[in-house]
Amino acid sequence: MKNSNLNLEVHHITRVEGHGNIFVNVREGKIEKCEWAIPEAPRFFEAMVVGRLYSELHHITSRICGICSIGHTLASLKATEAAMGIKISDQDLKLRKLALHGENLQSHILHLGFLVLPDLLGVGSVIPLASSNPNEVKTVLRLHRKANEMSDLLCGRTTHPQRLIPGGFSKIPSIKELTSIRDKLKESIPDVQAVADLMKTLAPKLPDFSRETEFIGLTSPDEYALYDGKIGSTDTSGAPANEYLSFTNEYIVPISTAKRTKHARESYMVGALARFNLNYNNLLPMAKKTAELFNLKPICHNPFMNNIAQLVEVVHSLEDSIRIIDELESTGLQSQPEYNNPEIKVKAGRGVGAVEVPRGILFHDYIYNDKGYCTKANCIIPTNQNHGNIELDMKALLPKILDKSEKEIELSLEMLQSL
Amino acid sequence: MKPKVAFFDFAGCEGDQLQIANLEEDILALLDQVEIVSFREVMKEHSDNYDIAFVEGSCTRLQDEDRLRQIRKNAKVVVAIGSCAAIGGINSLRNYKELDEVKKVVYGDSAKLFDAYAARAIDAVIPVDAYVYGCPMTKDEFLHVVKSLLLGKKPDIPTYPVCVECKKNENVCAFERGQFCVGPVTRAGCNSCCVNEGTICWGCRGLIDNPNENSEKEVLIKNGLTVDDAISKFSLYFGGQERKK
């Protein structure tokens, strides 16, 4: 039966980071309204950091997002380091890449295990799964714990990292600690395979829906770009990170406190699927095999496949972390002073930092005066870049699912938001 | 019957609620003791029938107040989790600036579309029964507060400064390393975790109840620091508490 009349208002939709409202109005089969609004209280970070010293910005902006606080800290540090002309050592670069992998693993496992799995199993949350599917839940918890142990080791803690500072690290792990976490990651491979097998049986439940869009993310000729790279697009040629404004083109819609962005089309998508589409060739072998298991190939235009792209990235981050620690083990670790606080020659200037965080590409852009105080800041976060695209996906998906029950429509639309 | 608990978020990063997920296997033990009836981040179901409400995030606009009052009405016990809810936290940094200017920096000419007032801790609006400090809160302290509440006891939260824990951990004092540290006036309970990791205390657990002003002055004089240095560092997290005075 077709829903000729439908009035759907979902306030504070659940199982997503941040707050969102869905407004759908269908009259006599015609869609009159289909909106995605963000009513979340604005935080004003770009104003708060003005007047603060360069050594504090990463600490403050980490608080933009608890789930991707490592990524925010790194984007912030990269912006500050670019502005002051600070170079970090190769070793610190590797350790930072590990930190980012730790966060990517943690966030993707949390999303797939705590949010997507209940959706696909038709329950309201992970809580009933603890008794109905205890093994699956324990597998997810085990993986999540190991990812967090890795972030703890690199960053001091997983949420709002402490060790990441301008110029490097205040403290670094020992090689013994690193190889111990590497061995735990190796032991996790069967757990990841179990999750992949489970997702394989559930993937047919992901809506079969495609809408062509532009994908934007970091790209690199050398690796699956996460920490560093040029801005890439599936529609146009790329550009260095400091030209990000020509990609983001932020605009304000009155229904949302979150700004939206657009580039070559009305909207673009960032996140795991965008990275997969742009960097497929640089995935490590096990990750590529995982993608093949789901017949996931670039360029995939089904936004729901973002979940599978996250799974592919879990495998990639695991493989690449093992590889990096192997390298560090063979070269040995250069020691550094306790309470390391690299000397920074403060100078005036502007710096842009771009990093891929679990939800997509993230930009921090600061201007400092000659005393090292921030005079202007701009932060463009991935979820905001996706809002316009989500609304267009909703508008394209809705007519195709109008024959379903109101409950199913609501669930499909909600799943779009929680990608 | 297990006590019913609910989680709510206001202006914040959701990093405190994330610490619930970060309990890892201990979540299963927690679920043996309490029934979670509302937790927007992870569950679809919602009920207004709960005994304990955990609230993350600051109150930053008028419309937040109604929601907070409703939560207070529904719950027997309200717990503020994390710095933003407990003391106003990093959000209060904007309280030192002209609000219209702050809004204009972010939204330009569209600033009038969006509500905002000075950021504040939730106890500026409703009575709060217990606090889990920290940015983010620590899992251990959260579990301690939950256990205390379930046993009908008052949680044991330190009233002394971070320096006490830091000395016990035998850290080299940040001032001696030439850095500014907020530890002398910040509430302990974090086991001086940021200094242990090689940095400084940023003050995220808030100003202690009776800071020793003379001793703080001594530290400043001894290290050639000014009151402006102190005020600048204190403003990172103490803005919400300043407002209350």
Summarize the structure.
Chain A is of the alpha+beta class. Chain A contains 14 helices and 11 strands. Chain A folds into 2 domains: 32 residues, no CATH class; 373 residues, Cytochrome-c3 Hydrogenase, chain B.
Secondary-structure-derived class of chain B: alpha/beta
Q: What's the domain count of chain A? A: 2
CATH class call of the largest domain in chain B: Alpha Beta
**In order across it, which strands form the biggest sheet of chain B?**
2-1-3-4-5
> Element order, helices and strands of chain B?
EHHEEHEHHEHHHHHH
- What is the highest CATH level, the class of the largest domain in chain A? Mainly Alpha
Q: How many beta-strand runs of chain B? A: 5
* CATH fold-level label of the largest domain in chain B: Rossmann fold
Largest Cβ-defined interface: A-B, 59 and 63 residues
Order of helices and strands of chain A: EEEHHHHHHEEHHEEHEHHHEEEHH
**Residues in helix, % of chain A:** 40-55%
What is the CATH topology descriptor of the largest domain in chain A?
Answer: Cytochrome-c3 Hydrogenase, chain B
Largest sheet of chain A: 3 strands, antiparallel
- Residue share in β-strands of chain A: 5-15%
Number of helical elements of chain B:
11
What structural category do the secondary elements of chain A indicate?
alpha+beta
The percent of residues in helical segments of chain B reads: 25-40%
CATH level-four homologous superfamily name of the largest domain in chain A: Cytochrome-c3 Hydrogenase, chain B
